[in-house]
Structures are given as structure tokens and as C-alpha cells.
Amino acid sequence: MRTLMIVAVLVSGCLGYGGFGTTLLFPDTDGLNRRFTELNRQWSGRGSFDAAPPLLAVGGHGAGTVGDFTLGGRGAATVARFQADAVTAEFAGALAFFDAGYAYAPFDYLVLRPSLELGGMVWAHYVHSRESFTDPNFSQWFLATSGGLLPGVEVMGRLPYGRYRYVGLFVKAGYYLSLYGPEWALDAGPPDFGMQGLTIHAGLRFGAMPVRPFRI
């Protein structure tokens, strides 16, 4: 009986949330533009690349909560295309992070959550002549991986419904700190480029969490 009571208490205190959203990534693209411009000139081009942030990633997230603490994760994918007069650069990437945070609700409709994310990113550049995507006369492949930390602060406005349910809109600002990489593979001469920089994650969330009054 005592064991059943302990399990019941733990289950009653373990709620959670999930949803989807977009992440804006703001890496420094100067080295990327320099390298892609060099490849464009190698293929008799005269123009320059002018790729600029943000990169847009779309994905989902979820977490469990015990009291005010949250533990979960998120993932997202991104694609982009940059062009000059002779070559095109295709870009694809994915990110995945574990997320640990502390949710503080000063009011029923507002939640502040500082958190620390641990994970990484993988991305690829496919640079090819503009004549053909599948069988170009000129092509280069660059693949990179990176791992690191992403501290940030999230603000969510939530609308409770039912006894413990809510729907919320959130925005989170953070900064990705690369601790590993980027490690490059495939063709030689990769760009001087990494994903370190400001990130903004925003989206829609559905959750189950007891609404608490303001506490001092």
C-alpha cells in the first residue's frame, strides 16, 4: 500500500507539455560567403554570394515536469538555397537538444523558464553549377557536425482550460555555444563557418500543469 501511495504521488506530480515551433538561427555567414564566392569564380562566375541569417528551422518539442522543473528535448530541420551567377549552394541541416529548465509562473497566464540545452547540429552544403542539380558539371560536398550548449530564457503566455490543461504561445532567446566542431567531412576546403550564435525559438504548446497563484 505504501508503494502504491508513493507511485500515485509521483504520477500526480509528473505532468508535461509538447508542441511545435520554428527556430531562427543567426550564425556568422561571412566565411560561408567567401568560400562560396571562390567556388563561383572557379566556375567562371563573376558574382558574389550574399547569404545572410537567419536560417529557419521547423520542428517539435516536448518535456515532462516535476513541480517547477522541466526535462525534455526538441528537434528541428532546415533547408535553404543560395545562388550566384555560376553556381548554386544547397543547404540542409538538423538540430537536436536535451533541455533542462525551471518554470516560474508569477501569474496564471505568464510563465518564465530559464533553461540549459545540451545537444548539437549537423548540416551539409552541396555547391553545384547552375546548369543541373542531378548531374552538374561542377559540384562540391561539405558535411559538418557540431556539439555544444544553448543557454536561454523562455517567456510563455498561456490560456488555461479544463482543470490542468493549457494552450500557450512561447518565445525563447538563447545563444548556441559550440564546444565541439565544426568537424568537416567529404570534399576538401570547407567554408570557415559554424552555427554558433543567437537563436530564437517560438511556437505553440499544449500542456498539463496545475495553475498556481503568485507565490513569494
The largest pleated sheet is described as:
8 strands, antiparallel, barrel
Using only CA atoms, what is the Rg?
Answer: 22 Å
Tally of strands: 9
Outline, from the CA principal axes? Answer: elongated
Provide mean pLDDT, rounded: 88
Helix amount, in percent? 10-25%
Q: How much beta, percentage-wise?
A: over 45%
Strand neighbour order, sheet with most strands:
1-2-3-4-6-7-8-9
CATH class: Mainly Beta
What does this structure look like?
The chain has one domain (15-208): Beta Barrel (Porin). The chain has an eight-stranded antiparallel beta barrel with strand order 1-2-3-4-6-7-8-9. It is elongated, with a radius of gyration of 22 Å. A hairpin with a 2-residue loop joins strand 5 (104-107) and strand 6 (110-129). The longest helix is centred in the N-terminal third of the chain and has 13 residues, at 30-42. The protein has helices spanning 2-13, 30-42; strands at residues 14-27, 55-66, 69-83, 87-102, 104-107, 110-129, 139-161, 165-186, 197-208. With 216 residues, the chain is mostly beta strands.
